[in-house]
Amino acid sequence: MATQVTLLTNLSSGLIKSSDIPTIEASISGGDSVNVWLAPDAEDPDNAIYATTLYAYDGKIAIYELGELIEEDMRRRGLVICSYDLHIGSHCKTMDVLYCDYIAEGFDTENSFLTTLSTQRVYIDSNVLVTLVGNASGPTVIHGLMVHDADDTYSDDKHNRYEHFEVESEDDMVPGEVLSVPFYDWVDRYTSYNPTDGVHLLNAVIRNGQRSKVVYFMPGKPDIRLVFMNCFNAYESLDLKGLLTDKTKVIQETAIVAGKRVAYNRRTEKEYEFVSEGLTESEALSIDQLLNSHKVWVMFNGKATPIIITDHTCEIDNNNEAQPSIKFTWTFADLRPHLNPDVLAASLREPGIFTKEFTYQFC
Prior knowledge:
Blueprint: E1 4-7, E2 15-17, E3 24-29, E4 33-40, E5 50-55, E6 60-63, H1 66-77, E7 81-88, E8 91-98, E9 119-123, E10 127-130, E11 141-148, E12 161-168, E13 179-182, H2 186-190, E14 199-208, E15 211-218, E16 224-229, E17 235-240, E18 242-257, E19 260-276, H3 281-286, H4 288-291, E20 296-300, E21 303-314, E22 326-332, H5 342-347
Parallel strand pairs: 2-8, 9-15
Antiparallel strand pairs: 1-3, 3-6, 4-5, 4-7, 7-8, 10-13, 11-12, 11-14, 14-15, 16-17, 16-20, 18-19, 19-22, 20-21, 21-22
């Protein structure tokens, strides 16, 4: 008699978040054990990410923490959605999985981009990254608000004239793939104005159907520009202002050779400590995903360089008297130390309102 398997756990037929995958229980009859394997949809046992033989206790078996196995496989493959087949003996159950390593009850995948940072501060040369799952609702549209500013101020006086524009993104959104929306050439890309026309971009809304992300443009440039994988394994960009400190540590051993002390096994380590300025409420509620991310890059001259966050302090409270901030230490993933690029050197400028002519050398 063949072993009969009855699945006791009710799994939804639609998209399920990996953090919501429960313990899988099944009853077996006609045998004491059953072969179990899990693989991406339509793959064979040779490509299984998990395979074992389970022995029944009181006629039942249980499979724990499948979500973690699936998340590890999706991280390795760089996916935000994937289908998996769970085989228990002759029984097969297909699961359509959305990567999510946080508990995210109520998150509406059909009407939201894969981000919890729905509003964010950016800069005029920023690239905003958005990802969706499900069906793209037609083209992605950028709505912008700009100001005609004759005297380079943002005051509401008779010289200022505000204007909206609406354009379609030049690239289509593909479900599960990131869309980069650049703003460094927004005047040429989205309007018919010239850069010399004195037109400033104040904010923009990136919209696809009911999904939207609002970005507000700040003057100047950020002190650090980061890209990381958020809790949905989707790319997220974050521009922050704050104080960046360069720390160098030389580790070496010494020995006595021919009556002289010599150094060997010398290793130079460079760490960078960043303390942010005050964060907005939306940034504060989402910033822990940066610190918890399994992949983080720092942007230098448009190039993404992998880093490792080695230490951090993130204490967000509801104190209305002070804006929340974060502090974290990071190092380049490369074993060798990096020379400071110009963009990093600019981030290490002295804080304050004065130019170099007013530093202590000139006092």
